[in-house]
Design a protein that fits this description.
TIM Barrel, 15 strands, five-stranded mixed β-sheet, 2 domains, Sulfite Reductase Hemoprotein, domain 1, alpha/beta
Length: 349
Protein backbone atom coordinates (compact mmCIF):
# COMPACT_ATOMS: atom_id res chain seq x y z
CA UNK A 1 0.00 0.00 0.00
CA UNK A 2 1.25 3.46 -0.93
CA UNK A 3 2.18 5.67 2.00
CA UNK A 4 0.63 9.10 2.53
CA UNK A 5 2.81 12.01 3.59
CA UNK A 6 1.87 15.40 4.96
CA UNK A 7 3.35 18.71 3.86
CA UNK A 8 1.81 20.87 6.53
CA UNK A 9 -1.94 20.34 6.13
CA UNK A 10 -1.66 19.02 2.56
CA UNK A 11 -1.85 15.25 2.01
CA UNK A 12 0.32 13.82 -0.75
CA UNK A 13 -0.69 10.32 -1.72
CA UNK A 14 -4.36 10.69 -0.89
CA UNK A 15 -7.35 10.84 -3.22
CA UNK A 16 -6.58 14.33 -4.55
CA UNK A 17 -3.82 15.03 -7.08
CA UNK A 18 -1.97 17.96 -5.52
CA UNK A 19 -1.10 20.85 -7.81
CA UNK A 20 2.07 22.74 -6.99
CA UNK A 21 4.30 25.40 -8.47
CA UNK A 22 7.72 26.93 -7.99
CA UNK A 23 8.65 30.57 -7.60
CA UNK A 24 11.09 32.17 -10.04
CA UNK A 25 12.00 35.42 -8.28
CA UNK A 26 15.10 35.81 -6.12
CA UNK A 27 14.21 34.36 -2.72
CA UNK A 28 15.64 37.47 -1.07
CA UNK A 29 13.03 39.56 -2.91
CA UNK A 30 10.32 38.58 -0.47
CA UNK A 31 7.56 40.75 -1.90
CA UNK A 32 8.13 39.48 -5.44
CA UNK A 33 8.05 35.87 -4.26
CA UNK A 34 4.89 36.43 -2.23
CA UNK A 35 3.22 37.99 -5.26
CA UNK A 36 4.11 34.91 -7.28
CA UNK A 37 2.69 32.69 -4.56
CA UNK A 38 -0.51 34.73 -4.49
CA UNK A 39 -0.87 34.33 -8.26
CA UNK A 40 -0.13 30.58 -8.13
CA UNK A 41 -2.67 30.02 -5.37
CA UNK A 42 -5.22 31.98 -7.39
CA UNK A 43 -4.62 29.52 -10.24
CA UNK A 44 -5.09 26.53 -7.94
CA UNK A 45 -1.74 25.66 -6.31
CA UNK A 46 -1.89 23.91 -2.93
CA UNK A 47 1.89 23.84 -2.43
CA UNK A 48 4.70 26.13 -3.56
CA UNK A 49 8.42 25.44 -3.83
CA UNK A 50 11.10 28.06 -3.25
CA UNK A 51 14.78 27.82 -4.20
CA UNK A 52 17.25 28.08 -1.32
CA UNK A 53 20.61 28.64 -3.05
CA UNK A 54 22.61 30.04 -0.13
CA UNK A 55 22.53 31.01 3.56
CA UNK A 56 21.51 34.55 2.75
CA UNK A 57 18.24 33.29 1.29
CA UNK A 58 17.22 31.66 4.59
CA UNK A 59 16.07 34.99 5.99
CA UNK A 60 13.91 35.59 2.94
CA UNK A 61 12.57 32.05 3.13
CA UNK A 62 11.59 32.50 6.77
CA UNK A 63 9.54 35.61 5.99
CA UNK A 64 7.98 33.99 2.92
CA UNK A 65 6.89 30.96 4.97
CA UNK A 66 5.43 33.23 7.64
CA UNK A 67 3.24 35.04 5.10
CA UNK A 68 2.47 32.31 2.56
CA UNK A 69 -1.16 31.12 2.41
CA UNK A 70 -0.03 27.57 1.53
CA UNK A 71 2.77 25.29 2.75
CA UNK A 72 6.24 26.10 1.39
CA UNK A 73 8.72 23.51 0.12
CA UNK A 74 12.44 24.30 0.23
CA UNK A 75 14.41 23.30 -2.89
CA UNK A 76 17.92 22.23 -1.85
CA UNK A 77 21.03 21.41 -3.87
CA UNK A 78 24.67 20.80 -2.88
CA UNK A 79 24.58 22.20 0.67
CA UNK A 80 23.06 19.96 3.37
CA UNK A 81 23.14 22.77 5.93
CA UNK A 82 20.57 24.65 3.86
CA UNK A 83 18.15 21.73 4.23
CA UNK A 84 18.43 21.88 8.01
CA UNK A 85 18.19 25.67 8.14
CA UNK A 86 15.15 25.59 5.84
CA UNK A 87 13.33 23.15 8.11
CA UNK A 88 14.15 25.30 11.10
CA UNK A 89 12.81 28.30 9.16
CA UNK A 90 9.46 26.55 8.80
CA UNK A 91 9.56 24.71 5.46
CA UNK A 92 6.91 21.96 5.47
CA UNK A 93 8.76 19.75 2.98
CA UNK A 94 12.20 19.69 1.40
CA UNK A 95 13.42 18.54 -1.97
CA UNK A 96 16.87 16.93 -2.12
CA UNK A 97 18.79 16.08 -5.26
CA UNK A 98 20.57 12.77 -4.52
CA UNK A 99 23.13 13.50 -7.22
CA UNK A 100 24.63 16.50 -5.45
CA UNK A 101 24.16 15.70 -1.75
CA UNK A 102 25.81 12.28 -1.46
CA UNK A 103 27.74 12.18 1.80
CA UNK A 104 26.13 9.68 4.16
CA UNK A 105 26.73 11.76 7.27
CA UNK A 106 25.13 14.80 5.64
CA UNK A 107 22.06 12.77 4.74
CA UNK A 108 21.90 11.42 8.30
CA UNK A 109 21.90 14.98 9.69
CA UNK A 110 19.09 16.00 7.35
CA UNK A 111 17.01 12.95 8.20
CA UNK A 112 17.47 13.47 11.92
CA UNK A 113 16.07 16.99 11.64
CA UNK A 114 13.24 15.89 9.32
CA UNK A 115 12.23 13.17 11.79
CA UNK A 116 12.34 15.60 14.67
CA UNK A 117 10.12 18.11 12.86
CA UNK A 118 7.94 15.55 11.01
CA UNK A 119 8.86 16.96 7.61
CA UNK A 120 8.76 14.84 4.43
CA UNK A 121 11.62 14.68 1.95
CA UNK A 122 11.22 14.50 -1.81
CA UNK A 123 14.02 12.59 -3.44
CA UNK A 124 14.14 14.47 -6.72
CA UNK A 125 16.37 12.95 -9.37
CA UNK A 126 17.10 14.93 -12.55
CA UNK A 127 18.65 13.37 -15.64
CA UNK A 128 20.89 16.41 -16.02
CA UNK A 129 22.32 15.97 -12.53
CA UNK A 130 23.51 12.40 -12.99
CA UNK A 131 26.82 13.79 -14.24
CA UNK A 132 27.64 14.32 -10.55
CA UNK A 133 27.31 10.57 -10.11
CA UNK A 134 29.76 9.90 -12.92
CA UNK A 135 27.14 9.10 -15.55
CA UNK A 136 28.18 9.90 -19.11
CA UNK A 137 26.47 9.57 -22.44
CA UNK A 138 22.81 8.70 -22.88
CA UNK A 139 20.78 8.51 -19.68
CA UNK A 140 18.39 5.58 -19.32
CA UNK A 141 15.43 4.93 -17.06
CA UNK A 142 17.57 2.40 -15.19
CA UNK A 143 20.10 5.14 -14.42
CA UNK A 144 17.38 7.32 -12.92
CA UNK A 145 15.89 4.43 -10.97
CA UNK A 146 19.31 3.46 -9.60
CA UNK A 147 19.86 6.96 -8.26
CA UNK A 148 16.46 6.86 -6.58
CA UNK A 149 17.03 3.37 -5.24
CA UNK A 150 20.34 4.31 -3.64
CA UNK A 151 18.91 7.34 -1.85
CA UNK A 152 15.71 5.61 -0.76
CA UNK A 153 17.76 2.74 0.66
CA UNK A 154 19.72 5.18 2.82
CA UNK A 155 16.54 6.85 4.08
CA UNK A 156 14.85 3.53 4.82
CA UNK A 157 17.93 2.27 6.68
CA UNK A 158 17.58 5.37 8.84
CA UNK A 159 13.94 4.38 9.47
CA UNK A 160 12.68 7.36 7.52
CA UNK A 161 9.69 6.78 5.28
CA UNK A 162 8.03 10.18 4.82
CA UNK A 163 9.27 10.15 1.25
CA UNK A 164 8.03 11.51 -2.07
CA UNK A 165 9.80 10.51 -5.31
CA UNK A 166 10.43 12.13 -8.68
CA UNK A 167 12.73 11.43 -11.62
CA UNK A 168 12.60 14.17 -14.23
CA UNK A 169 13.96 14.42 -17.74
CA UNK A 170 13.26 16.65 -20.75
CA UNK A 171 12.55 13.50 -22.79
CA UNK A 172 8.88 12.50 -22.82
CA UNK A 173 9.38 8.78 -23.54
CA UNK A 174 12.13 8.47 -20.93
CA UNK A 175 9.93 10.22 -18.38
CA UNK A 176 7.00 7.86 -18.98
CA UNK A 177 9.21 4.76 -18.92
CA UNK A 178 10.91 5.83 -15.70
CA UNK A 179 7.73 6.67 -13.81
CA UNK A 180 6.14 3.37 -14.80
CA UNK A 181 9.07 1.56 -13.22
CA UNK A 182 8.90 3.79 -10.13
CA UNK A 183 5.30 2.83 -9.51
CA UNK A 184 6.19 -0.88 -9.61
CA UNK A 185 9.27 -0.58 -7.38
CA UNK A 186 8.55 1.99 -4.68
CA UNK A 187 5.60 2.32 -2.24
CA UNK A 188 5.88 6.10 -1.95
CA UNK A 189 3.89 9.02 -3.39
CA UNK A 190 5.06 10.21 -6.79
CA UNK A 191 5.70 13.77 -7.94
CA UNK A 192 5.21 14.11 -11.71
CA UNK A 193 6.98 16.57 -13.95
CA UNK A 194 9.06 17.05 -17.08
CA UNK A 195 12.11 19.26 -16.64
CA UNK A 196 13.77 21.73 -19.01
CA UNK A 197 10.85 21.64 -21.42
CA UNK A 198 11.49 25.14 -22.71
CA UNK A 199 8.71 27.57 -23.38
CA UNK A 200 5.96 28.04 -25.91
CA UNK A 201 4.25 25.18 -27.70
CA UNK A 202 7.01 22.61 -27.20
CA UNK A 203 7.03 22.98 -23.43
CA UNK A 204 3.26 22.77 -23.25
CA UNK A 205 3.18 19.69 -25.46
CA UNK A 206 5.92 17.82 -23.58
CA UNK A 207 4.36 18.49 -20.18
CA UNK A 208 0.81 17.73 -21.30
CA UNK A 209 1.72 14.45 -22.98
CA UNK A 210 3.94 13.04 -20.23
CA UNK A 211 1.94 14.21 -17.22
CA UNK A 212 -1.42 13.46 -18.82
CA UNK A 213 -0.34 10.02 -20.03
CA UNK A 214 0.95 9.00 -16.62
CA UNK A 215 -2.09 10.35 -14.78
CA UNK A 216 -4.35 8.37 -17.08
CA UNK A 217 -2.42 5.25 -16.04
CA UNK A 218 -3.05 6.06 -12.38
CA UNK A 219 0.52 7.23 -11.76
CA UNK A 220 1.18 10.43 -9.85
CA UNK A 221 0.10 12.09 -6.61
CA UNK A 222 1.31 15.64 -7.14
CA UNK A 223 2.31 17.53 -10.28
CA UNK A 224 4.40 20.54 -11.23
CA UNK A 225 4.47 21.81 -14.80
CA UNK A 226 7.86 23.36 -15.69
CA UNK A 227 7.88 26.02 -18.41
CA UNK A 228 10.13 28.92 -19.36
CA UNK A 229 7.45 31.42 -18.36
CA UNK A 230 5.62 32.73 -15.35
CA UNK A 231 5.03 30.47 -12.37
CA UNK A 232 1.30 31.22 -12.39
CA UNK A 233 1.07 30.11 -16.02
CA UNK A 234 2.73 26.81 -15.09
CA UNK A 235 0.12 26.25 -12.39
CA UNK A 236 -2.70 27.19 -14.74
CA UNK A 237 -1.50 24.62 -17.29
CA UNK A 238 -1.29 22.00 -14.54
CA UNK A 239 -4.80 22.81 -13.38
CA UNK A 240 -6.13 22.53 -16.92
CA UNK A 241 -4.46 19.13 -17.35
CA UNK A 242 -6.16 17.88 -14.20
CA UNK A 243 -9.53 19.40 -15.08
CA UNK A 244 -9.54 18.03 -18.60
CA UNK A 245 -8.73 14.55 -17.31
CA UNK A 246 -11.57 14.77 -14.82
CA UNK A 247 -9.10 14.59 -11.92
CA UNK A 248 -10.00 17.99 -10.51
CA UNK A 249 -13.41 19.58 -10.25
CA UNK A 250 -13.74 22.44 -12.69
CA UNK A 251 -14.49 25.63 -10.79
CA UNK A 252 -13.87 28.13 -13.58
CA UNK A 253 -15.27 28.89 -16.97
CA UNK A 254 -14.14 26.80 -19.96
CA UNK A 255 -14.20 28.45 -23.37
CA UNK A 256 -14.28 26.26 -26.46
CA UNK A 257 -14.08 27.51 -30.03
CA UNK A 258 -14.07 26.09 -33.54
CA UNK A 259 -10.76 25.90 -35.46
CA UNK A 260 -12.06 28.20 -38.24
CA UNK A 261 -12.39 27.58 -41.93
CA UNK A 262 -13.27 29.51 -45.08
CA UNK A 263 -16.90 29.94 -44.08
CA UNK A 264 -16.00 31.53 -40.75
CA UNK A 265 -17.24 35.00 -39.84
CA UNK A 266 -14.50 37.52 -40.61
CA UNK A 267 -14.74 39.02 -37.11
CA UNK A 268 -14.42 35.65 -35.35
CA UNK A 269 -10.97 36.29 -33.85
CA UNK A 270 -11.96 39.68 -32.52
CA UNK A 271 -15.15 38.38 -30.91
CA UNK A 272 -13.43 35.30 -29.46
CA UNK A 273 -10.72 37.46 -27.92
CA UNK A 274 -13.36 39.69 -26.32
CA UNK A 275 -15.17 36.66 -24.89
CA UNK A 276 -11.90 35.38 -23.44
CA UNK A 277 -11.03 38.77 -21.99
CA UNK A 278 -14.43 39.52 -20.48
CA UNK A 279 -15.56 36.02 -19.45
CA UNK A 280 -12.36 33.96 -19.22
CA UNK A 281 -11.81 34.75 -15.54
CA UNK A 282 -15.31 33.81 -14.39
CA UNK A 283 -15.16 31.57 -11.34
CA UNK A 284 -18.10 29.42 -12.37
CA UNK A 285 -18.06 25.86 -13.75
CA UNK A 286 -19.70 26.59 -17.10
CA UNK A 287 -18.65 25.86 -20.67
CA UNK A 288 -18.96 28.67 -23.20
CA UNK A 289 -18.76 28.01 -26.96
CA UNK A 290 -17.79 30.51 -29.65
CA UNK A 291 -18.39 28.99 -33.08
CA UNK A 292 -17.39 30.58 -36.39
CA UNK A 293 -20.49 29.58 -38.37
CA UNK A 294 -23.83 27.80 -38.03
CA UNK A 295 -22.64 24.43 -39.44
CA UNK A 296 -21.34 22.90 -36.21
CA UNK A 297 -22.71 25.35 -33.67
CA UNK A 298 -25.45 23.18 -32.22
CA UNK A 299 -23.58 19.95 -32.90
CA UNK A 300 -20.00 20.37 -31.73
CA UNK A 301 -21.05 22.92 -29.12
CA UNK A 302 -24.11 20.97 -28.02
CA UNK A 303 -22.40 20.10 -24.74
CA UNK A 304 -21.72 23.75 -23.96
CA UNK A 305 -23.82 25.56 -21.40
CA UNK A 306 -23.93 28.78 -23.40
CA UNK A 307 -22.63 29.95 -26.74
CA UNK A 308 -22.81 32.02 -29.89
CA UNK A 309 -22.50 31.02 -33.54
CA UNK A 310 -21.20 33.73 -35.84
CA UNK A 311 -23.24 33.28 -38.99
CA UNK A 312 -22.64 35.59 -41.95
CA UNK A 313 -25.86 37.38 -41.11
CA UNK A 314 -27.06 37.66 -37.55
CA UNK A 315 -25.50 35.86 -34.61
CA UNK A 316 -27.16 32.81 -33.07
CA UNK A 317 -27.30 32.78 -29.27
CA UNK A 318 -27.80 29.29 -27.85
CA UNK A 319 -27.96 27.41 -24.55
CA UNK A 320 -27.25 23.69 -24.07
CA UNK A 321 -27.66 23.05 -27.80
CA UNK A 322 -30.98 24.87 -28.06
CA UNK A 323 -31.51 28.07 -30.02
CA UNK A 324 -32.38 31.10 -27.91
CA UNK A 325 -32.53 33.87 -30.50
CA UNK A 326 -30.69 35.68 -33.29
CA UNK A 327 -28.87 38.87 -32.33
CA UNK A 328 -26.86 41.57 -34.03
CA UNK A 329 -23.12 40.99 -34.30
CA UNK A 330 -22.21 44.11 -32.34
CA UNK A 331 -24.43 42.89 -29.47
CA UNK A 332 -23.17 39.30 -29.42
CA UNK A 333 -20.80 39.40 -26.46
CA UNK A 334 -23.05 41.66 -24.38
CA UNK A 335 -26.05 39.40 -24.99
CA UNK A 336 -23.99 36.33 -24.10
CA UNK A 337 -22.86 37.97 -20.87
CA UNK A 338 -26.39 39.08 -20.06
CA UNK A 339 -27.70 35.52 -20.48
CA UNK A 340 -24.97 33.99 -18.32
CA UNK A 341 -25.19 36.52 -15.51
CA UNK A 342 -28.99 36.26 -15.44
CA UNK A 343 -28.87 32.51 -14.85
CA UNK A 344 -25.68 31.74 -12.93
CA UNK A 345 -25.61 32.61 -9.28
CA UNK A 346 -22.44 33.94 -7.67
CA UNK A 347 -20.71 34.54 -11.00
CA UNK A 348 -17.62 36.60 -10.22
CA UNK A 349 -14.45 37.64 -12.01
Amino acid sequence: MKKKVYAGNVIIGGEEIILQGMTKSDTNDVEAVLKEIENMVEEGASLVRVAVPDRKSINGLREIIKRSPVPVIADIHFNPDLAILSMEAGAKKIRLNPSNIRNRKDIERIVKKAKEMKIPIRVGVNSGSLVYEGKKGKITSDDLIESLRREVSILENLSFKDIVLSAKSPDVKLTIETYRKMKEIFPYPIHLGVTATGGGDEGLIKSSIAIGYLLMEGIGDTIRVSLAGSSSHEVRVGRLILENLGLRKRERVEIIACPKCGRCNKNFDKILERVRKELGSLKIPVKIAVMGCEVNALGEAGQADYGIALTRGKILLFKKGMKIKFIEEEDAVDELKKLIFSEVKDASI
